[in-house]
Amino acid sequence: MAQPRRPDAPSSSAVDLTRFAWLSIAAAIATIALKTGAWAMTGSVGLLSDAAESTVNLVAAVVALIALKVAARPATERFLYGRAKAEYFSAAVEGAMIFVAAAVILVTAVERFVNPQPLENVGWGLAISVIASIINGAVAFVLIRAGRRHRSITLRADGRHLLTDVWTSVGVIVGVGLVALTGWERLDAVVAFAVGVNIIVTGISLMHESVSGLLDKALSDEDHEVITEILRRRTDGTVTFHGLQTREAGQQKFMNVHVLVPDEWTVKHGHDYIEDLERELMGRLPELTVLTHLEPISDPTSYEDIPAAHVRIHDDDHDPTVPPQG
Questions:
Q1: What 8-state DSSP symbol labels residue 252?
Q2: Which residues pair with 252 in a beta bridge?
């Protein structure tokens, strides 16, 4: 018997996260204006690369806003499990945009290395870049914290991208400052090239996380420990469990497990037990949707449908593939 979460059950997926996307959009617009101004004043290709990454931030923030709106839509007859995975597409798009920005930066850096140019108004340009970095750093902190709290890969990806932008800006500021101190103009291009490589590393990380989510990655080890602790505690010789599988989709968590109960239990007895189990599980993990399969504990066929890949519940010599003895 399958026992999905009831439609009125509490879930963090009901939280509106679009306000964070709007915050990211506002920050991207502000930093684009500031960094573009810094580049125009100095002529630094390093600052230009920094401004290019902020342009990517804006596109990514808009995509994130769309994804969060789609993911927040309720389930329908066509999308019975909702659209939470839309967030993974957002992270994939952001990763792809990062690669585009990196390519532009690398090409520009190589051209400037071959044809170096003197910098102007370095002091004002760096001051403006510092202000933009402070804005990005503050917004990145807010997005990453919200992403962790609400299990949103979109906010985490956007926040990590902004945080990368901050470190990129720090490198650019140091590099441009050294150019002004040493007079070695090609150093500006070297810094820009390093920025491009760093951006590529971030893009690879985001793409990997997005693909893992689309492929139904299992829940974290911490979540598994919560679930298995409850199931182990309820294993008492008359009731046991096996075939535990989990996955996550955006803010939502899913698990399914086989519940083996005494043969003589009535349907109502088994149903009441499962209802109580679900309440305990969802009390510890409010985002969790629980699916259970009720089976008679002494029937050999109950042990023939265990999935090949599953989470180990018992940490002793208990064998979940055979009926308990005695």
A1: E
A2: 249
Per-residue pLDDT in tens (0 to 9) along the chain, 326 residues: 444 444 334 344 456 788 888 998 999 899 888 888 888 888 877 777 778 777 777 877 888 788 788 877 877 878 777 777 777 777 777 777 778 777 877 887 787 788 777 777 777 878 888 898 899 899 999 998 988 887 777 788 778 778 877 877 777 777 778 777 887 878 777 877 887 787 787 778 777 777 776 777 888 889 999 999 999 999 887 899 999 999 887 667 899 999 999 999 999 999 999 999 999 999 998 888 899 999 999 888 888 888 888 898 886 555 555 565 54
Q: Is 150 helix (H, G, I), strand (E, B) or coil?
A: helix
| Closest alpha carbon to 216 in 192, 243, 248, 238 | 248
d(CA 151, CA 14): 12
Three-state DSSP class for 70?
Answer: helix
| Spatial separation of the C-alpha atoms in residues 285 and 282, rounded to whole Å | 5
Tokens of 9: 């059950």
